[in-house]
Amino acid sequence: MHGRGQATLEAFGRDAVFSDLSFTYPLKLISPKIPAANPVAIAYVLSYGGGLISGDQIELNVETRKEATLILLTQGSTKVFPSRTIDRIRASDVFARQQDGVTPPDTTRQSLEAKVASGSNLVLLPDPVTCFAGSIYTQVQTFRLERGASLCVLDWYTSGRMSRGEEWVFERYRSVNEIWIDGKRAARDVMLLEEPNGRSVLPLAPRTLKARMAPYSCYATLFLIGPAVAPVLSYVEQEMRSVTQFQASAPAELVWSFSPLEHGGIVRAAGVETETVKFWLKRILIPLQSTIGAEAFDKILV
Amino acid sequence: MQAANDDQAAHEAYILLLLSDANLPTGSFVASAGLESYIKHGFFSASAQPEGASLFDNSSSGSLESDPTSFKDMPNPPRLTSATIRFLQDSVQSYARSALPFVGGVHDIVEKVLSSPEDLDNLQEIMQLDTLYESMTLNHVARRASKAQGVALLTLYTKGFSEPLWIPRSRSPLSKAMTSLIEGLKLKIRKGDTPGHLPICWAVLAAALGLTRERSQHLHSFLHARALLSASVRLNTVGPYAAQQLLLHVVQPMVENAVRVSKDLQIRFGQPEVSREGDLELAADEDDGPANTWPLGEILSSRHDQQHSRIFNS
């Protein structure tokens, strides 16, 4: 299925108004009314049935103008169901095609193209992506900011259907986040997770994806750019400065890092439990309340 | 023809000897590429080691002559050695996947300089890849280490490998073109026009010295692994003899596999839009470019400066 959507948000005084909010099956965009002192709007990005099946393609375009703040959320994690043909095609054949630069036909793909005008804000705080065993998923998000625009983007994923004991056993997860500021590429983050392909590296056994990701089952990346997220940035920087790492006797339940960028910074975290990561993220995002308001803040990362 | 190939092979072998010198002033001795922080965060501890998982391929297809049942009696490597091997596997794979497409891309550009030394676009093309590498290296600790080592390599060429002026009849007519390209790049780095990252500068140096594309990529990956083992010796997690054993028996297949997987990955820019200034878009996303494959390594190496005490800069 190929679903498309467009959301364009403008500000008129204190009101945020969608000049365009359209979508096609299986994508759905729902915007609940929220009381807000500023031109802030929420849109839920939903897919029918709460998951994506193999071959699904979702393309979303968003634009924020003037002083508007658009908050994009989901309801529940994005579940990526297994590839239909992966059982029939031997994995090595799939990888052979990948090496020719051809995306496997069963790839589930979500793409987001966002334009953020100067003075406006885009806040993207979805639930994590959960790739089921055998799934192939690609996500490409491009954010084009004018100087003075702000961005808060969370990209996170879990190890799979933990209730079934799945731990890092999907075929492939690839996530690309590219942030442009005023025509310059400020960041291009490409994360690629797949089982090591090709021959076994004798005498060593192949290093499995699960072994590479252990002991954590949830990884998150948070991009923070622009003046509206400055309070979050200074909070995170202060937290990082207060960390003094002595020799640990075992890995911590949650580990995180912060790297500054020219107009903001990037936070990464990994946790043994998804809930631990979510709770921690919500805590460091508390200063965002001043930008989006308490009503909207209550709806994020619930 | 055969004689020319022999000359080329002998030249390349000699250059390999020079570049493999562990005492070359390239700044790699202050870099641990996240290993120090990884250990400090408890990932070498007994509780962080996977239970029951063997490091080795015990399948019967793994070794033709050995009886698979005999593996049962084999000793396990010491815990710190196993942990080191696991770190090497993840680090070498992820670094190769991130950096080798850039080494290959820059090597291609420098080879063009060999055929048309006057073409100034070549420097611009190298800078485009350098800027892209910067935007893909978001970890500030890795950025810092990569830039320090990159510019050190260019200095190594201009001060250590360029042909001295007092050599009467030039043996390598291209040395002049290479020196001017590298001086040009150094100037751009000093002015802050381009960051000067390690894989970019490595490819310039290796291509300027006449190493082939694949040899440049292979040696770069090997030196990454060897630097990690040198760091292990200084961190006292591996002894000096064990480090040599690992280099010979474990690192070789590891590096070869990483190079095989990543050497042909491409970086393709789209057509520049005439009306638009700024960085070039990448050609339509085709899944086969540089990527980070080890998010845990990224987090831990970014926390390097949070360590209470440390002996490395990265």
UniProtKB/TrEMBL annotation, chain A:
Pfam families: UreD
Stored InterPro entries: UreD (IPR002669)
Annotated GO MF terms: nickel cation binding
Alphabetical keyword list: Chaperone
Recorded family membership: Belongs to the UreD family.
Protein name: Urease accessory protein UreD
UniProtKB/TrEMBL annotation, chain B:
Any Pfam family matching the protein: UreF
GO molecular function: nickel cation binding
Domain of life: Eukaryota
Gene3D superfamilies the record matches: Urease accessory protein UreF
Skewed-composition ranges (Polar residues): 56-69
Alphabetized UniProt keyword annotations: Chaperone, Nickel insertion
Region listing for Disordered, in residue ranges: 55-76
Family, as annotated: Belongs to the UreF family.
Protein's name in the database: Urease accessory protein UreF
